[in-house]
Specification:
With 488 residues, this protein is α/β, with parallel strands linked by helices. The protein contains 15 helices and 10 strands.
Length: 488
């Protein structure tokens, strides 16, 4: 029973469908693993074992009666705490929504339920998805399974840590500026940020609406492609979803690198750690030996991605979070009886330091006299970044670069310097600004036994090719990685 938790997603899917494994046995094994290890990792904010086992029992009953909902029926999946599930608390790891129960399902949850997945809510995150380390959660700091003294990344740190610690084979996160790819990199697993508009955002509590995108984590490639197929598609409840050809997981085939043009960065222009830089150059050398041509790209605009991203994201967050006022829902602090005091007291008590910082920055950049100088200028720069990616893909097939400039840093190491923390997203934010898809691929361990990730990026709605390149990269020996069986 214990070995079940170490199966890959694809092995789980096969065993469930050939009848050699029941959903209840698998789910029970994961629940036992969570019980044994989550005190060290703190990936989960809450876990209702009765509800979870009931879903598994129902799946096994359907299988016995020949009424399976899909080939995915009975597969456990973790859900980040900002994705709404009917009747479940959706707190976004914040005090202001600590007791809020969602009255409806997010579109991605509806699609998972239709396929028979066993849902495991609620995975910890940075409050309202604002952070790069999961240290901004109002309730707990999640830890990295490779070294619990280090962060798992953020904001989807709980979702990544749960998969890396073999508590689940797959999970869902959200990515605004790297919040799937960066924790996937630091935890040694797969993580995909789809093209903006590929996956519905209906039921995802908004941070920055023009940047947010739901995506999957997995312990193998097949989990990524299957989940993208299930989650993606036009949604009448979200007018930002795009009417494009549906993604099909069987369209993903390993791509031969011979003759392919790979966009690469000049490493001396960015402050990569020595281990990350060395592994990146080793990967490029290996791809070159397989016949690929390396094409240096001008990433000079990337240096502006952080300020552009934080101006746009904070402006949108100040607008989106204005609804949490102590009146309609959420925490209410009543004192003097004055309306302004109710707003102020409720938001002061309900929001954490980082959320307040971003609301203030966003409100300032949108204020009269500063809008054109800051927010307006950032939007113009965003257009330039989007155009630059379009130019890139006229000359290269795929862009290959590190996902994070460093491996996982220690808990508390960067909390006193928010600017240093923001720089951790320098390689991921431009992807969200451009709206293109990108995936983190595990690329082995550094000399301290910490995971390194490589990010692949292709043009809009070209996920089939993106995952094909990722599948090819996974076959490189230097990219092999084993998840920790015992948590230190």
């Amino acid at each position: 029973m214990k070995d079940l938790i170490y199966l890959s997603y694809s092995e789980i899917k096969k065993k469930l469908n050939d009848g050699s494994l029941s959903s209840k046995d698998l789910t029970s094994a994961y629940l036992k693993r969570i019980e044994e290890t989550d005190s060290k990792i703190k990936a989960f904010l809450e876990l209702d074992k009765t509800k979870i086992l009931k879903q598994a029992d129902e799946s096994d009953k359907r299988r016995k009666e020949g009424k399976l909902l899909s080939e995915f029926d009975g597969i456990p999946i973790g859900i980040k705490d900002n994705i709404c599930i009917t009747g479940e608390i959706t707190s976004c790891s914040s005090k202001i929504l600590e007791n809020f129960r969602s009255p409806y399902d997010a579109t991605v949850i509806t699609r998972l339920k239709e396929k028979g997945f066993v849902l495991f809510p609620r995975l910890n995150m940075d409050e309202f998805a604002m952070g790069s380390s999961t240290e901004n959660s109002a309730f707990q700091t999640s830890k990295n399974p490779f070294d619990p003294e280090r962060i798992p990344g953020g904001s989807s740190g709980g979702s990544a840590a749960a998969v890396a610690a073999s508590m689940l084979p797959v999970s869902l996160g959200s990515d605004t500026g790297g919040s799937i790819r960066q924790p996937a990199s630091l935890c040694g697993i797969w993580g995909l940020k789809p093209t903006y508009g590929r996956v519905s955002r209906y039921g995802l509590v908004a941070y920055a609406s023009s940047l947010d995108q739901i995506g999957p984590f997995s312990n193998d490639m097949e989990g990524i492609s299957d989940l993208l197929q299930i989650l993606s598609g036009l949604d009448p409840k979200d007018q930002t979803t795009a009417k494009v050809n549906p993604f099909e997981s069987n369209s993903v085939v390993e791509i031969d690198w011979k003759g392919k043009k790979i966009g690469v960065m000049k490493t001396e222009e960015f402050n990569f750690s020595e281990d990350v830089n060395t592994r990146y150059l080793e990967v490029l050398k290996s791809l070159e030996s397989k016949g690929a041509t390396l094409v240096p790209l001008d990433f000079s605009l990337l240096k502006f991605a952080i300020p552009v991203y934080y101006l746009i994201a904070t402006a949108e967050c100040s607008s989106n979070l204005s609804r949490f006022d102590g009146i309609r829902y959420g925490l209410r602090k009543e004192g003097s009886g004055k309306l302004d005091d109710l707003y102020s007291d409720s938001r002061t008590a309900g929001f954490g330091k980082e959320v307040k910082r971003r609301i203030l920055l966003g409100t300032f950049s949108l204020s009269s006299g500063y809008y054109d100088a800051y927010y307006g200028k950032a939007q113009k720069a965003r257009v330039l970044i989007r155009k630059q990616y379009a130019e890139f893909f006229k000359s290269v097939d795929v862009i290959v670069q590190p996902t994070s400039p460093t491996t996982a840093f220690k808990v508390g190491e960067k909390t006193k310097d928010p600017i240093q923390m923001y720089q951790a997203d320098i390689l991921t934010t431009s992807v969200n600004l451009a709206g293109v898809p990108a995936i983190n691929c595990p690329a082995g361990l550094d000399q301290n036994g910490l995971p390194i990730g490589i990010q692949l990026t292709t043009s809009h709605f070209d996920e089939s090719k993106l995952l094909g390149y990722a599948k090819s990269l996974a076959s490189l020996e230097l990219c092999k990685i084993s998840l920790p069986k015992e948590i230190p």
